[in-house]
Amino acid sequence: RRPWWMLHPPAAVVPTRFWSAPERGRVLELGGGCGLVAAVLASLGADVLCTDGDPTALRTAAQNCTDAQQRHDSARCNWGNVRFQELKWGDAEVARAVCREHGPFRLIVGSDLLYGIAAPPGPLVETLAALCVETAAAGSPAEVFVAAKNRCRNEVEGFTRLAEARGLWRVSLADPEDFTEGFEGRYTSADGKEECPAYGIIRLSPRPGTAAAGAPGARGWS
């Protein structure tokens, strides 16, 4: 039986404008799973830190990225760099330590990170808040892109509600009309009372003064 993080394809989380920028910076991936997103980013020349709370997932990701690099090397493509680091969500200090050790990060991405009670949004938002404050304090606040599929519930709505409550970001959603082919469809709750797009891509843009807002006792930090 395969773990749940190997069963579902991720949605796209790579913003096109990032790859046309003169300075791309480092990318932090949360919940790397099988390593597909890290491999795609590296194939575009990115310097990626791929993290996951499951050591087995990290080993799988490392092997898949090695295989992908070998294929790209034979095609003479511009492969970037991928490093791997265990990171469990929910511990703000651990997240900030990872950021200090491996950052600074210009972009934080994640795909297929929410999965009902198996992977709820609370610990993820806690970790993102810590990373947001740490990158802002270093003078380079990171943007966040999270792709989610609504399977067990409206995962996108639950995540955005918690993110907005933090007061650290401007939260926006990509227009489903702009999604690539294969990411159409609708989610309908088990009781049939709720319907929404099956996929969502969420952007968290740091608000001005994020580092100060994240100080202990300030609004949006716990």
Q: Describe the biggest sheet?
A: 7 strands, mixed
Would you report the number of β strands?
Answer: 9
Estimate the mean pLDDT confidence.
83
Rg calc: 17 Å
Shape category: globular
**Lateral arrangement of strands in the main beta sheet:** 3-2-1-4-5-9-6
Helix content: 25-40%
The fraction of residues in strands falls at 15-25%
Distance between the termini: 38 Å
Structural class by secondary-structure content: alpha/beta
Helix and strand succession? HEHEHEHEHEHEEEEH
Number of helical regions: 7
Low-pLDDT regions: 214-222
Give the topology.
Blueprint: H1 16-19, E1 26-30, H2 36-43, E2 47-52, H3 55-74, E3 81-86, H4 92-102, E4 105-111, H5 121-137, E5 143-149, H6 155-166, E6 169-173, E7 186-188, E8 195-197, E9 199-206, H7 210-213
Parallel strand pairs: 1-2, 1-4, 2-3, 4-5
Antiparallel strand pairs: 5-9, 6-9, 7-8
Helix pairs in contact: 2-3, 4-5, 5-6
Structural description of this entry:
- With 222 residues, this protein is α/β, with parallel strands linked by helices.
- The protein is 34% helix and 23% strand.
- The strands form 2 sheets. The chain has a 7-stranded mixed β-sheet with strand order 3-2-1-4-5-9-6, sandwiched between helices. A two-stranded antiparallel ribbon has the order 7-8.
- Helix 2 runs parallel beside helix 3 (55-74) and helix 4 crosses helix 5 (121-137).
- The protein starts with 15 loop residues before the first helix and ends in a 9-residue tail after the last helix.
- 41% of the residues are buried.
- Mean pLDDT is 83; it is low at 214-222.
